Recover the amino acids of this structure.
């Protein structure tokens, strides 16, 4: 069972990696359950299990650049989430743009005067 001090230690670790609040809460839940699972399966103390979990998540918290216009480095996990979110937005706006362009071409084609 994870105590409130141990939970705060996980929260502090995630705050150190500059995660936004919504992502921090989701990752915190995953990390706490992973620590608890490691403690139960491998019969480790919290510190050992938390250290092992940190090693497993280490690649997700490496800093990387986001884009040309955003100079501050961000964690890889945040970059992946933002890219996925904006890719859906990009697909929708591209579809809307193509539909608008098609309607515009049809209106030009069917116009009777210049």
């Amino acid at each position: 069972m994870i105590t409130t001090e141990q939970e705060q230690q996980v929260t502090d670790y995630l705050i150190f990696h500059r995660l936004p609040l919504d992502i921090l809460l989701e990752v915190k839940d995953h990390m706490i359950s992973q620590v608890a699972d490691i403690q139960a399966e491998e019969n480790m103390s919290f510190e050992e299990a938390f250290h092992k979990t940190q090693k497993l998540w280490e690649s997700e918290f490496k800093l990387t650049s986001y884009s040309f216009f955003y100079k501050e480095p961000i964690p890889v996990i945040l970059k992946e989430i933002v890219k996925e979110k904006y890719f859906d937005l990009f697909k929708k706006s591209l579809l809307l743009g193509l539909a608008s362009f098609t309607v515009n071409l049809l209106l030009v084609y069917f116009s009777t005067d210049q």
The first strand starts at residue 63 and ends at 64. The two ends are 77 Å apart (CA to CA).
